[in-house]
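Q: Study each token:
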Amino acid sequence: MRPAETEAATPGILIDVLELCKARITVLVLVSTAMGYLLAEKSLAIPRPLDLPNLLGALVGATLVSLGINVINQWMERDIDALMIRTANRPLPAGRLNPSRVFIIALALTLLGLVILFYGTNTITGFIGVAVVVLYLLVYTPLKRRTQWNTFVGAIPGALPPVLGWSAALGRIDFQAMVLFMIMFFWQYPHFFPVAWLYRKDYLRGGLVMISVTDQSGGRLRRSLLFWTVILILTTIMPYAKGFAGPVYLWGAMILGGAFLWVAVRMSRNLNETTARWMLKASVIYLPLLFLLLFFDFRVL
């Protein structure tokens, strides 16, 4: 292969790797793990120096586990991906990468990430990592072919990164960590519903049982979107109600929640691709802004 050909091929390989790793999801895992860790440190009545090796262990371990299970998920679903327009050109269904080699590398990344969590942080954090792997790969992924309740199950490992960060910092799971879990858990519904609507035809082709497939009129999806958005907004009041966030957080959360609910109402009243894309964008903006508010107005119980 001539140098010019090598340079032309390299971007394709990099794109394939990023596609396999689901880079955006991994970034969310990294950020939410870091947020959980830093909030745990802020919860201490007596501040202490930041344990950088421990923090690094949590971040690296969580990142490797996320990378590994995202790749294994695509390896498990490569037959489904080949049927869907959105995913047919992914590296595995398109045949650009060897499935066996990809699986071995992904398994190694996952196991290495778990080892780092166990030995680089603490045992509780390691077991949270194991729970993420088991729930995501052995429960959520198979359920996508069987029941629309897969979304509920999948939201559990998706909400664990901030708890993982918290336990890595303190070696325990406190009430505040469970509130972070609930916020992340409920946020995933209004985040996923627009995705489900946008790609409902693809999910039908692939044989995935989603709410937008079992109810193509969209009636149940509209009601569910509003219900879970309201539940999320009510849950975001808990940090203030329980005394570990101040009025700045409360007012900010209410303003964010009101704007988020407005976008959800628009999608519910006029269900189409435009409103669904607005809802998806709003969900991506909403969560980091909410966590930033919580971080800057976090109080010691």
